[in-house]
Amino acid sequence: MAARSERGRAARELSRLADADASGLFDGGSFEGLQKSPRWPSAPGAGGEFAIHFPGTAAAIIAEANLFLTGQPRLFGALHDVRRDDGRVDWDYRPTGPEFAPFRADPKFPWEVARMAVLPRLALAHHLSGHGPHARAAAALVEDWALLPVGEGLHFSSALEVGIRLIAFCQAFQFFRRVDSFRGAPLETLVRRIALEAAWLQGHRSTERVVAGNHLLGELAGLVVVDLVFPEFGQGDRLDDNLRRFDRAFGEQVAPDGVSREQSATYGRFIADFAAMVLAATAAAGHPVPAGLPERSAALATWLAMLTRPDGRLPLLGDNDGGRGVDWGEFF
């Protein structure tokens, strides 16, 4: 009954947002104010300074983003051509070839494409290089994604995927909101899409699953990050409720000593991604966090550090998945 009520409220909110103009997306704010407010990164020329001090890392970030410009981003460690015949992204991309036969009925690859990890990579590349192609490619990607109906199809069959995608959207927004070639329609489309997908996700959280696991954690992380990055949405109550729920769900996944209750190294890293993003976003916004969450997150990080091999990889302990909750640019 509670889930049905939540979904009813989400449907009404989606209807309201779909009919709102740009300024109507915000409660007591304005679209212009949202573009100018002091969000991170705010230091002028920070990208150039980073490139000077870390030239190898900056070059690797730009090279990775350039892969998308050719239609061949890296998925699960390998390059894949995700373009359709018309050059647009194939949101239902599934690789061919005998080695991929087991995945033809598996949503793993299309979900990975739609997690939008490429968007913050393009944003970082533009921030570091100042070159227009990265911002223009990101704008086209956002506009194309916005053609898909919210709440329908494969990419809304798992609420976790929406939570991960929202985090990527928010990461990209931080960089693109002041970029001339992204201003106007692309930026408005991105912000509107964030508002719509967050409203849908709020009504479809895995709160009534018998075993919510890391799915609920990722969903809550996405919602918390959205409401921290966009206080103009006027969802303070939603933020506080979901932050409390995140803390509770995190405690169900991580023991006080930092060990993953799922007994999995890679899934431990997966939920550590969410914790790191939530803590970073709350710190940037000056928002309080539940008592004990930073300490338990630090304990999880310590456990993962102890497991990490000299080559930087985690051992295959327990159930394994190469997916990430947040893209940190660790491809270099």
> How are helices and strands ordered from N to C?
HHHHEEHHHHHHHHH
The residue-averaged pLDDT reads 88
CATH class of the largest domain: Mainly Alpha
Structure classification = mainly alpha
Shape label: globular
Distance N to C terminus: 47 Å
Structure description:
This protein has 332 residues and is mainly alpha-helical. The protein folds into two domains: 1-36 and 48-204, Chondroitin AC/alginate lyase (Glycosyltransferase, Alpha/alpha barrel); 213-331. Helices cover 56% and strands 1% of the residues. The chain has 13 helices and two strands; from the N terminus they run H-H-H-H-E-E-H-H-H-H-H-H-H-H-H. Helix 6 (118-129) runs parallel beside helix 8, helix 8 (159-176) packs parallel to helix 10 (213-229) and helix 12 packs antiparallel against helix 13 (293-307). The longest helix has 21 residues, at 265-285. The radius of gyration is 19 Å and the shape is globular.
